Amino acid sequence: MTEEIAHVFREQYGRVVAVLVRVFGDIDVAEEAVQDAFTTAVRRWPAEGVPPSPAGWIITTARNRAIDRLRREATRDDRQAHAALLHARDEPVQEGAVPDERLRLIFTCCHPALAPAARVALTLRLLGGLTTAEIAGAFLVPEKTMAQRIVRAKGKIRAARIPYRVPGEADLPDRLQAVLAVLYLVFNEGYTASSGEALVRADLCAEAIRLARVLAGLMPDEPEVLGLLALMLLTESRRDARTGPGGELVLLADQDRSRWDRALIAEGQALVRRCLRRGQPGPYQIQAAINAVHSDAPTAADTDWRQVVALYDQLMAVAPSQVTAVHRAVAVAEVAGPAAGLALVDSLELVGYYLWHAIRADLLRRSGRPEEAAQAYAAALDRTENATEREFLTRRLRACERASPGAREDGG
Amino acid sequence: MTHYLLTIYQPDGEPPAPEILEPIMKNVAAFEEELRAAGAWVFNGGLHPPNTATVVRARGDDVLVTDGPYLEGKEHVGGFTVIQAADLDEALEWGRKAASAITLPVEVRPMTSGSGD
Predict the structure, then answer these.
(1) pLDDT (tens digit, 9 = 90+) per residue, A384-403?
(2) Is A198 helix (H, G, I), strand (E, B) or coil?
(3) Is 70 exceeded by the pLDDT of residue A297?
(4) Res. A198 pLDDT band, cuts 50 70 90
(5) Closest alpha carbon within chain B to A85
(6) What are the residues of chain B with a beta carbon less than 8 Å away from any beta carbon of chain A?
(7) What is the interface size between A and B, counted as CB pairs within 8 Å?
(8) Residue A338: burial class (beta carbons within 10 Å; 0-12, 13-18, 19+)
(9) Residue A2: closest CA among A59, A41, A56, A31
(10) Which of A1, A150, A250, A264 is 20 to 30 A off residue B116, Cα-Cα?
């Protein structure tokens, strides 16, 4: 039973909080009410059984209990309680089907008036149902810091009246971009944890994918939402193959492709095809398409690199960035040789970016310039805290040092 | 309706040349007109330069009076507008219009006054 309730919590938390935010116009009241209702569920469901509509039961219980509590508090001249009660009177909960208000709440959590870190924290907390401690742990921030961040953001939503509303057509593209950026940031933080022991924090990836699925369900006509979901699924499909038996990083070219998750690939590729049919390419769709090309290749040697370069050209046209240019250079190196890739990389000068150094190092190594490659690996090492990546770079650095003409017997 | 304070931040130093300032003032006037026509205008005011400011501090029963602005920086508050809006999105829309008219950064900040519901 505890497991069942935990499952309902996981699946329905965002949905019921969103409905109650709508009812009370206040995030704190909504959260407390939902917490209350789940506590009641833990007490009653084991004896009475899980109700036919768990979400509906939680919403009704949360609403009733919150109203009781607010009435008690409202007698003590509590402005916030009064406001929430007034709001609840004007926002009746529909009987029957549980409404889905999550879209409004996502846009509130990812409002541009909130700092990016606060957007991430609020989204994970309110829509993902993660605790403050879990979010703090995932981002390696002290719990107290994360708690303050969340309290401050909720305070701003209330005081500045950030609305619970899906933006109008004119603002939608920019605002949706902000939502997608939050989900992708959560995914990336999970996929390449910027520091710490594990290369991947799978729970963050899973949560980002879950939220992207929710968003894709709520906005099925937005190709970039589908594109982001596809990009995450295709990236996630390679997660197991990305680390070796000792936990070491395995690059795409060296991965055991039998370990790729075929179901995720099939789903991701189907989404990419759906996007292609719509013909409104955007940065996430194109990145998903690039990943789909890799997923298509039975071996690394079978990769259609010309197609990858063409897609990077398209990506540079819609969303030019130095980081994209670095990745494009890698593809160019596969088509035209490492020297051609190196020329492109050297024209970019992304000195602060660890991947620029790492890619430069690899291209130097493949161009038969081990000494310079070793220097570039060392530079890359100075710029990442991720233990798995560091281990990989160190391994390559040692190999290049051994291959250098001036290498000493003891390997330096 | 909530009241929001739109604060205009202006770089220190001489104001821009008349040929630059003139079209800006025209745009600002048009913005104010739009604000009033929409019923969103509450109050506004431009300020003399910060070197005209005087700071008064309570020191026990006494007050200390000093010349100059409270904060010294590269920028100062050049003027402000108080508006009323239903929510932050509406207030930010006015903020956007103000910033484009004035061509200076505008801070949008909720006030504790307003009808509050």
Answers:
(1) 888 888 899 999 999 999 98
(2) coil
(3) yes
(4) low
(5) B117
(6) 2, 86-89, 91-92, 108-110, 116-117
(7) 31
(8) buried
(9) A41
(10) A150
- Check if the beta carbon of residue A353 is closer than 8 Å to that of residue A323: yes
Sheet of strand B41-46: strand arrangement: B41-46, B75-85, B2-11, B106-114
Give the closest-approach CA distance of A186 to chain B in angstroms.
26
Is the sign of the CA dihedral A267, A272, A277, A278 positive or negative? positive
Range list of H helices, chain B: 18-37, 88-102
pLDDT confidence of residue A140: 80
Q: How far apart are CA B19 and CA A339, in angstroms?
A: 54
CA angle A164, A21, B116 (to 5 degrees): 70
Contacts of A175 in chain B (CB under 8 A): none
Q: Is the pLDDT score of A296 beyond 80? A: yes
Q: Is A397 left (phi over 0), alpha (psi -120 to 50) or beta?
A: alpha
A241 vs B: CB within 8 A: no
Token readout for A192 is: 């390449």
CB contact under 8 A, B110 and A160: yes
A12/chain B closest Cα distance in angstroms: 28
Give the CA count within 13 Å in the CB-facing half-sphere of A121. Answer: 25
Q: Retrieve residue A83's tokens.
A: 């406001």
Residue A200 has pLDDT above 60, yes or no: no
Q: Which residues of B fall within a CB distance of 8 Å from A167?
A: 89
Contact B87 A167 (CB under 8 A): no
Q: Specify the long-range contacts of residues A274-278, CB closer than 8 Å, at least 24 apart.
A: A274/A226, A275/A223, A275/A226, A275/A227, A275/A230, A278/A223
Is the Cβ of A153 closer than 8 Å to some Cβ of chain B? no
Q: How far A166 CA lies from chain B's nearest CA (Å)?
A: 11
CB contact under 8 A, A113 and B87: no
pTM, two decimal places: 0.86
The residue among A82, A108, A161 with the most chain B CBs within 10 A of its CB, best to mutate, is A161
- Mind telling me how many Å the CA of B4 is from chain A's nearest CA? 8
Average pLDDT, chain B: 92
**Please, which residues have CB within 8 angstroms of residue B18's CB and are 6 or more apart in sequence?**
none
